[in-house]
């Protein structure tokens, strides 16, 4: 990758050299950033370079890198202290286990070690920053959660979750930095456990477990429905656009026709959350802003062509594996 930007490259500090920490190192290094990766476990630090190299080689095999794996790996430096990882960083990504006390201690250390303008972000999957950023921390306004998909170099969405004490400027800067690194940030407007990713995933898993428990379907059949049905569609468009394109007249028409059935299914599980007219109107307005109804047929055709490309790819992969 040729960098014509006269500014010095961005620098990321990563605390935690497990699978997510290594994956973040690849994301930032692939985007041209300098990366300093730290783990308190010497064995993890020793293993990290080989893991980075293996994953970069896999990405090379699928033509997903714009430059050589060696050039990217050279941007990742393994360091022996948290302070070295945080020094001169634009952003520090904490990737420690999901324990509030441990994260509280790490963030206190990072606040002392990182430059004042650096963003301090946790890769927490469920814990909000309010649960582990101490109220006495001088730099708490630059602390937030940035929860990635796994692995982030293949699943680029990252949930930026400010705490009530996070400054708007810090949240905006975090979103800008992750965008520079080639990720797809979304802003979570409230600190809710599990954020967006795991709440959506959890809703599917809860129902999947119930269907197995109730004898409705086998584990394999449920995976088949997801893999061959919902999964391909959702890899192209999300759930709102899916139902918007499934029904002529768009999402308002879908809600009118199907809403009562979904309400009954929810109530059956003890979750009575009907789609009120006001809520449907809010969602429909967002969809109509994104896609006017006079463009509906054109978008349905686009969806089908995207699914055709995916089907062709899967057919080719199945043929190659046989």
UniProtKB/TrEMBL annotation:
The chain crosses the membrane at residues 12-33. It comes from the Bacteria. Residues 12-190 form the 3-hydroxyacyl-CoA dehydrogenase NAD binding domain. Keywords: Membrane, Oxidoreductase, Transmembrane, Transmembrane helix. Residues 194-262 form the 3-hydroxyacyl-CoA dehydrogenase C-terminal domain. It holds the Pfam family 3HCDH. Belongs to the 3-hydroxyacyl-CoA dehydrogenase family. This is 3-hydroxyacyl-CoA dehydrogenase.
